[in-house]
Amino acid sequence: MLEQRYRWKNKQLRDHVSVLDGKLSPTLLLKNARILNQAFRQWMTANIWIFEDRIIYVGDKLPDDIGQCEVMDCEGLVLVPGYIEPHAHPFQLYNPHSFASYASQFGTTTLINDNMVLALQLDKKKAFSLLADLNNLPTTMYWWCRFDAQTEIHNEEKIFSHSNVKAWLEHDAVLQGGELTGWPKLLAGDDLMLHWMQEAKRMRKKIEGHFPGASEKTLAKLMLLGTDCDHEAMTGKEVYNRLMQGYTVSLRYSSIRPDLPKLLDEMHALGINQYDSFIFTTDGSSSSFYEQGIIDHMIRMAIEKNVPVIDAYNMGSRNIARYYNIEHLHGSIATGRIANINFLTDELNPTPVSVLAKGKWVKKDNENLNESPLFSWNGKGLGPLHIQWDLGLTDLQFSMPFGIKMENAVITKPYSITIDVTGDQLSKTHDECFFVLIDKDGKWRINTILKGFANKLDGLVSSFSNTGDIILIGKSKKDILIAFNRMKQLGGGIVVSENGEVVQEIPLKIKGVMSDQKVEALIEAEKQLLTYLRAKGYQFADPIYSLLFFSSTHLPYIRITQQGMYDVMNKTVLFPTIMR
């Protein structure tokens, strides 16, 4: 069966015109709607005709034929375009399906998603099949194309081969290349990455940066090489520098970088009061962080920080659509656009009471109507982990001269080990734990000591990590083994054992890295785990991100990877992995 290359087929387009001619009835008529009209930058009253998933007409007229039409009087409501999340990582324990469903309840009806997990876990044929299935959801899904694994992995040249990257870039659902976590290699002369960037630009697709702490000169160089946007500004001055070099700036409010209020204050102090070059992102936050909302919450904060109301909404909708060249489909309530519309009680309250996504009610009068059946992941090559090997005490031997010290939730530095690590139990008078990364297929391991994660944690095992390999942390080898065996039994997950008993678990039955449960259930499970870990000495913002980033070489300074213990600044494997 040939792939449908166009958003609407010829017959559908003819039907849309027939609705205007009165030969077909709209499927939904929104009367007396007070809408945000970006063309005029005004709130205006209009009638909106919708046929299936498309806005057919916006204006004063009413259709002649409403025989097959739902009619809604919007008196007293304010209508704005569906919100867009331009930088989603839909694999932070939740999965793309569950996150899309949850996000829609807060009015975020379009997601532009990281493809990292799909690139690492699936071949491109299965990955593209999954993209096609996800396209059937009410939420609109777009994707990125990664150029590197964000860590040191085996067979990276095969996973991120030229043919694979080119196939992703050419896919109609892919809007950008990046994010460029491997930009130091780019600046050092990686011409293959530069070629992929050139290909993306040739296809009129964007390049997303990842430039924390980058100097003005570095930002200029990366703009010259093709980057369009960056989301790593952490101060008003860094925002200013990015604007000066021609970047679109993605303002971030995430579970490890809740920067937006500070950024807006510092931007205003610098005299920045034009907002056309800004967009919003929550940058793949943990489930519990989203309890307060998603893009709607960022719009609310912007309004509270005296950003003009229309600009605040545009940063969560129209600006994003314009940036990605999809304004003909998204970002406004206008003829021809996809019918993604949020219904508000007040323009100062961006959280909708009703939501249309692709012309379907996913929320109406505060009732969730998006209760689609759970997605079947087994047939997509993303079933539970089947671990065919056993973990034993011989795998938990430690002789490393130095370990890894946590500076915050995601930054780790080397430190000299001075305690005795030869026994089966570490003292709870300090914050050092046994620490292992072990291959999910049981072929290799790297053993060291982790300082700063917890001081009273007996045993934690997580199949959730950057690469899907397995993380072991704890004071007690016995409890680490118990937690591992329970994780194995679950088919993947995060498991904690204490005094010989499992006390916390989050099953991750989708390849060991994602849950098949709803986000609402994950929020409660995550909050319980965080409360538990805080009681055991975890003092940072987000343990889920800590687990994810232990092997992520886009952050300084020392990482455990498939290649071994890795010095990020010197790009050197300090101690290779041990074959089992």
From TrEMBL:
Transmembrane segments: none annotated. Keywords: Hydrolase. Residues 78-362 form the Amidohydrolase-related domain. SUPFAM superfamilies: Composite domain of metallo-dependent hydrolases. Its EC number is 3.5.4.2. It is an enzyme of class 3 (hydrolase). Residues 410-571 form the Adenine deaminase C-terminal domain. It comes from the Bacteria. The keyword Secreted does not apply. GO terms for molecular function: adenine deaminase activity. The keyword Hydrolase applies. It catalyses: adenine + H2O + H(+) = hypoxanthine + NH4(+). Belongs to the metallo-dependent hydrolases superfamily. Adenine deaminase family. This is adenine deaminase.
